[in-house]
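Quick log. Single chain, no ligands specified.
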Amino acid sequence: MTPAATLAAAQAAATGPGFLSPTGVEIAFVLVGLATLGAALVTVSTRQLVHAALWLVVALGGIAVEYLLLTAEFIAWVQVLIYLGSVVVLLLFGLMLTKAPIGRSPDADSGNRWIALGVAVVAAVALVWVVVDAFRTTWIDLDGPVQGSTKVSGEILFQHWVLPFEALSVLLLAALIGAIVLSRRTDPAEDADASDKGQR
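-> predicted structure:
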């Protein structure tokens, strides 16, 4: 190897990865991200509640694929099992049990679309700025060893994030108990009708 080639290799190693030579995984990451963003926009813009729930499945599934592309397979499967397998099913059951309209619903638009769009843009810019500022010099070697494995995620979760994890579990338990209490609450008029029917 000539001295010039050695110098060029050393400079390339010093500068690290570049944006002008993306790999296939990085291209797939960008394409899946764009598809996920499109599904999320359709989710919040459609006036059909069932369609919004189904597009939410696409958006959450795209996020799971992004986790897989980042070699975080444990987080990807948690995304699939909890969000796709539980949250979306819960939303669909809620739509069916509350007799929500299946077709277009004019009530789905509150009239604050421009305010909501402004808040969403501000939140997106703030989130992107925070992430870029925090991980500006951090690179993930997608061809290297798995970084988001169950072992690594478990060690980080239960060594550094035990208190927030337990607080979140208590919050979810409180929400579950509140939902049970609200679902069992009946209207006094319905109680009176039921007692009249029982007396007859």
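The mean pLDDT is 76.
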